[in-house]
Amino acid sequence: MERNLMAAGFGGQGVMMMGKLLAYSTFSATDKNVTFFPSYGAEQRGGTANCYVVISDNEVGAPLGDVMDDLIVMNEASLNKFLYKVKPGGLLFINSSIVKKPVERDDITVIPAPVTELAMELGNAKVLNVIMLGVYVGYTEVLPEEVVYETVKGQLAKKPKLIPLNEKAFRLGTKIGQEARKDRKGLV
Amino acid sequence: MAKKFMKGCEAIAEAAVRSGCRFFAGYPITPQNEIPEYFARRMPEVGGSFVQGESEIASINMVYGAAQTGVRSMTSSSSCGISLKSEGVSFCASARIPIVYCNVARGGPGIGAIQPAQQDYMQATKASGNGGFRMIVLAPATVQEAVDMTYEAFDLAQRDRNPVLILADGVLGTIMEPVELPPMRSDEELRKLREETKDWALRGHKAGEKKLILPGGWQGQEDRCKANAAMYDTWEKDIQVEEFLTEDARVVIAAYGVSARVAKSAIRLLRKEGYQVGMIRPKTVSPFPYQSFDKLDYGRVKAILDVEMSIPAQLVYDVELGVKGRCKVHTCLRSGGEIMGREYIVNAVKEIYNV
């Protein structure tokens, strides 16, 4: 079994951290092979940033797939650029606060979440990536929720003040993901 | 030992420290910046020295100097930065000074692109500087291999008193993977290793020795060249190669580094569809495993597919030398920072499979 994820957005949206948190969680809690591969332009801010996470029972060959099982897009540019990469039957997670245009494919499942707005409601726009990570984990159950939460907490060991905010963000995300999954099962 | 989840560049730097590297000088360039960054943090912890030079040329010459004292020394850069270091590397090869350096290759020629590429193959394996010297060049495909090869590189360099190059690429430098690190060499072990360099290393006036290290001279240059050539001839034993599913293969892929790991995934997909495909992956690109191509059964092998991230192809010249015209050699190429894709290779194999 091999599962690959691509996450893409503006530089500064925490796309890399999202991928890294998932990769770290896989590494620390399972005996699966995992790779994290970042790709970004020369800019420090702005520009595009994306990363690939591959989780596999075998050794990981290609660290980035031509076709992705799952794609997370945090802005419209990323949707335009990478939509074709999602395999038929794959999952597309969308930051619906920013991405307003309809998805022009009917062979994939779209899971929208207004993570920018939700982050601002929580009082800190920066946690949009943690919410989205929650949505992804809640929907896919690729890893147990608690395992990923422990990694999030571990990353903040030096900034313990931020833990309650990030926990709230992560739990909010997982709830959205779980609800979306339930709805989908209801439809099937 | 417990595994760690590490970025390629950082893992290379840590492996170097564990192998006994105690001097590093470098100059920033993407995508290898995490190597000097890591050394800057790590060297003070182990009593080593880190210098950010004012340029690539200064850095390689600092390494040239430090290594002359028998201290395990290293530098790193990326493609165009490696070109700048070529004079210093050539001097090390001429003066027979053991250094290790790493090229985290990016697009070229010129300043190229910051994205990963494999466009420095010829430079790495044939002419890393003027004068026709040779080096052992290790080409890792995974972070684990990068670690193991870096650890080994310092021993090979010291054994031969010759530069050793680790030819990585931007994927390997920036990817994070689980890795098992080799044991840390103790200060006692490092003292012993340094003691082994006493016949040639400069140890200061206090040692009461008069020694001279020269990167050439007025006389005896032919003898130097002959001695070097004799040393290069002993490298047959150092060849490392992975032969993957070649026993029944009708098409054999030739690839190294990141292209090879992508090719491996492609082969797994092709095998599921019944295609008999294998791969020869040089782990040392110099010395090159020509004999792996020599021993293929060309009654069965119909074609070789050279897969690399370089346009025009470069590895293909060594592949041709191994194949010696016994079957057709095709190419499957990307470059300019475009990373080799699995489907790309799958399609290339299918195109030539029944021809």
Description:
The complex is a heterodimer of chains A (188) and B (355). Chain A has a single domain, classed as Pyruvate-ferredoxin Oxidoreductase, domain 3 (3-Layer(aba) Sandwich). Chain A contains six helices and six strands. Chain A has helices at residues 15-29, 76-82, 115-121, 128-140, 145-155, 163-187; strands spanning 2-10, 33-40, 48-56, 68-73, 86-95, 109-113. Chain A is globular. Chain A starts with a strand and ends with a helix. The model of chain A has no long low-confidence stretch (mean pLDDT 93). Chain B is an alpha/beta fold and 355 residues long. Chain B folds into two domains: 4-237, Rossmann fold; 241-353, Rossmann fold (3-Layer(aba) Sandwich). Chain B is built from 13 helices and 14 strands. Chain B has helices at residues 8-19, 34-42, 56-67, 80-95, 121-125, 143-160, 170-174, 187-195, 221-232, 257-272, 290-294, 315-323, 342-353; strands spanning 4-7, 23-26, 49-52, 73-77, 100-105, 136-138, 164-169, 176-179, 241-244, 251-254, 277-282, 284-286, 303-308, 328-333. In chain B, the strands form three sheets. A seven-stranded mixed beta sheet of chain B has the order 3-2-4-5-7-6-12, sandwiched between helices. Chain B has a five-stranded mixed beta sheet with strand order 9-11-10-13-14, sandwiched between helices. A two-stranded antiparallel sheet of chain B has the order 1-8. Chain B is globular and about 70 Å long. The mean pLDDT of chain B is 96. Classes of the chains: A alpha/beta (188), B alpha/beta (355). At the A-B interface, α1 and β2 of A face β8, α10 and α13 of B.
Indicate the topology.
The complex is a heterodimer of chains A (188) and B (355).
Chain A: E1 2-10, H1 15-29, E2 33-40, E3 48-56, E4 68-73, H2 76-82, E5 86-95, E6 109-113, H3 115-121, H4 128-140, H5 145-155, H6 163-187
Parallel strand pairs in A: 1-4, 4-5, 5-6
Antiparallel strand pairs in A: 1-3, 2-3
Chain B: E1 4-7, H1 8-19, E2 23-26, H2 34-42, E3 49-52, H3 56-67, E4 73-77, H4 80-95, E5 100-105, H5 121-125, E6 136-138, H6 143-160, E7 164-169, H7 170-174, E8 176-179, H8 187-195, H9 221-232, E9 241-244, E10 251-254, H10 257-272, E11 277-282, E12 284-286, H11 290-294, E13 303-308, H12 315-323, E14 328-333, H13 342-353
Parallel strand pairs in B: 2-3, 2-4, 4-5, 5-7, 6-7, 10-11, 10-13, 13-14
Antiparallel strand pairs in B: 1-8, 6-12, 9-11
